[in-house]
Each structure stands twice: as structure tokens, then as C-alpha cells.
Amino acid sequence: MDSALASDTAHEGAVYLRQSVRTAAKLLVVGHFAVGKTTFVGSLSEIRPLRTEETMTQAGALVDDLAGIRGKTTTTVAMDFGRLTLSDSLVLYLFGAPGQQRFTRLWQDMTRGALGALVLADTRRLEQSFDVMGLLEEHGLPYAVAVNHFDGAPAHPEEEIREALDLLPETPLITCDARDRISSTRALITLVEYLQTRQTRLSSTAQEHV
Amino acid sequence: MTPPAPRRDKGLVRPYVVTDGRAHPTRNTFDLVTLVMAHGDLPIGGLSPEKRALMELCLGGALSVAEIAGHLMLPVSVTKVLLGDLVDSGHLSTRAPIPSAQLPEAQILQEVLDGLRARL
């Protein structure tokens, strides 16, 4: 497998899309290192989650500084993604990536055309979520926050978490277990319901101004 | 002799050798979720090994740009260059990613929501 660029086995695992699929929608699953993004994508995906990597050169120096990584001249950034066929004509892709990739083409590719994002958070390291939340706000990408349940992590009242994360009153905050398909599906539903409410509000505001 | 591959380097050659040194595709129409379909009627024998692998993958059915990159273990940027060439040569065609221009976002959100609820 290690030298499989042009190997005959490279595509054995491919699971193709239904012929009838016409639309591909995109949601992001973001959060800091080890918050459960890959687990979340894996719980939901109908295909074995895939990974693509990009080696950074120019922007890498800055990101290396931010990440506190030393002695590296190039940085490899990666995203994991999965797929859910939602109907005969619609497929949903979930892209999971950390926020340190803000300067990369990969991050731009991911955010372009995305409907919104689910921010996964860990109550033991809430402050580490700020970076990625700020990044989504810079890109104007709406998001909901899902606190991933970790065994042994302290359970905080919702109000405390909202305050710690400095969430807007309208931003949904939910808890989920990224290992569980149903729980992860519910988290995505909450996100999409929010996107829908927001969209309705934006379009009615737009009409008032016509 | 093929030198041993560096630990994280999954390809036989460096990525930009695959693209003849080009970092950008000939067209700028590829999104990560652009759906790609192969046309089986053109010969693939004269293509580079990487393009042939890409065609062999895509001849099986439709896949997104991201999936193609993932399966071939190539960076997305390199995959886009190869895809651009293969669209230019008529081997592949694409179905535009969603887009807001084609379907209203409200409709997509509703369909996504319906699809997710049906999975509970």
C-alpha cells in the first residue's frame, strides 16, 4: 500500500455514488486536536473515512510558529472526510479538520460552498475551541457547538459552557457522543435546523428591504 | 533501483513531478465536492501512470474530487491538476458542485434535514 500511487489495488476500496446523485452538499466538522472529529465523521460515514494530505511550504512557517512546532521546514496538513447518501439525488460530505489550517488552500477549499459547521468541543479544554470558532466567524460560516462526551470529563451546566465559549444566544449548544451514530446524527440535525432558521430569517429580512 | 519511500510519502514520485511541475489546474472549476464521471470511450493507454490510475478509479462510477484524492493518496491540489487535464482531453466530465446558483440553499437545507431525520 505504501507505494500504491498507480497500483492496481488503489481503488479496490472505492464505493461509488449512485447514478442518480445530482447534488453534493458539504458540512464541516471542526475542532482542536483530539476532540473527536475523525470519530464523529467515522460514526456517520457510509464509506471508510478518507484522508487527504497537503504539504505546505510558504505559509508553513507561520503556522509552525502558531503551533509551536520547531525544526520542520514543511508541514503536512490533513483532513478526514466521509459521505452520507441522503436521498437518490443528494449526497452529504462531512469534512473534518483542525483550525490551524487557516492559511492553507485546503481550508479555503473546505469552507467554499459549505452550508455550515459543527464545532466539536471538550469541556476539559474549552479554551482551545476559540481559535476555530474565530476562524469560522472570519469566513462567515454559521456554526453550532457540540460538546463531545468524554468519559471522566466534568459535566458543566449549559449556561457555564455558553459563557466560557462566549456563544451568541442563538448559537445552538448540544452534547453528543461522537462514537454513537444516532447521537452524532442528532447533532447534525440540530446544526441544519439552525442553518434553516437562520436562512429563513435572512431571506425574510432581505424581502423587507426590497 | 527504487529508493525506499520516505515515511509519509505514499507516492512513488514527488507530487509535482506527477503534474509536470504545475501547481494549478488548467481550469478552476473543481470544488472538493465536484462530482466527476469518466467517459469510457477514449483510450487510456497513452496516459501517464497517474492519470491512468485516476481513470481506472473513475471508470467504476461517479466520485467527488475529494474522494478521488483520498483513494489515490494524492494531495487535492495535484489531483485537481490531473483532473483538469483529463477534462480537457475529454476523458472526464464534471457535474458542478451544489451550488447555490442552481438550487436554492433553502431547498438543499430541507433535503439534508429530511435525509438526516430519516436516519434516526
Automatic annotation (TrEMBL), chain A:
InterPro entries linked: Gliding_Motility_GTPase, Gpn, P-loop_NTPase
GO molecular function, one term: hydrolase activity
Domain of life where this protein originates: Bacteria
Gene3D superfamilies: P-loop containing nucleotide triphosphate hydrolases
UniProt KW keywords: GTP-binding, Hydrolase, Nucleotide-binding, Receptor
Database matches in Pfam families: ATP_bind_1
Similarity comment: Belongs to the GPN-loop GTPase family.
PANTHER family, per database record: ATP/GTP-BINDING PROTEIN-RELATED, GLIDING MOTILITY PROTEIN MGLA
Identification of the protein by name: Signal recognition particle receptor subunit beta
Source species: Streptomyces netropsis
TrEMBL record, chain B:
Domain of life: Bacteria
Protein name: DUF742 domain-containing protein
